[in-house]
Design goal:
By secondary structure, this protein is an all-alpha fold. 83% of the residues lie in helices and 0% in strands. Helix 2 crosses helix 5 and helix 6 packs antiparallel against helix 7. The protein is elongated and about 70 Å long.
């Protein structure tokens, strides 16, 4: 099961978001749903790989120590594994949210809806001032998402040693 699941995720991960967008545009038509599905399928496969690697690279001594005390499997995961991998998983998930904001602009250009569709329409009518404005808003949005994700990480994970609280 483990091997088969990894190969399935490898297959999904091997297909680029643009290809997924074209597949979903054909399946569900033009619009934001196709873009959301394309981003979701591509990201779930990548996050599954990253999360699996984080779990595999976790220190086993904590897990073994909890098992030795007779802890239930759910408690072993909660207190032995999760504290080690949660910061990595959270950072990766927040990065993907920021990255997907940028990806949405590209996917919209191929017909998957969203902000990219607005950019493509403005380019077609040569409204360069509006294109520039949309791009500036997109950059500001990405900066705000980055700032918010840093705050969420600091709140949920806590400040790391060597860094001062802001």
């Amino acid at each position: 099961f483990h091997f088969s699941l990894r190969r399935i995720f490898d297959g999904f991960r091997g297909v680029d978001q643009l290809i997924w967008a074209l597949v979903f545009v054909r399946a569900v038509g033009l619009g934001p749903l196709a873009g959301v599905l394309a981003i979701a399928v591509a990201d779930i496969a990548v996050l599954a790989k990253l999360y699996a690697e984080a779990i595999e690279n976790a220190e086993r001594r904590q897990v073994e120590g909890l098992r030795a005390t007779g802890a239930k499997p759910s408690l072993v995961v909660r207190f032995g594994l999760l504290p080690q991998v949660f910061p990595v998983m959270l950072a990766q998930a927040l990065y993907f949210v920021e990255s997907n904001t940028r990806s949405a602009s590209v996917l919209g250009i191929v017909g998957a809806g969203g902000i990219g569709l607005s950019i493509a329409e403005r380019i077609r009518i040569r409204a360069w001032d509006e294109v520039a404005f949309i791009i500036i808003l997109l950059l500001i949005t990405v900066a705000i998402i980055d700032w918010l994700s840093a705050r969420v990480r600091a709140r949920l994970i806590g400040e790391r040693e060597g860094r001062s609280a802001h």
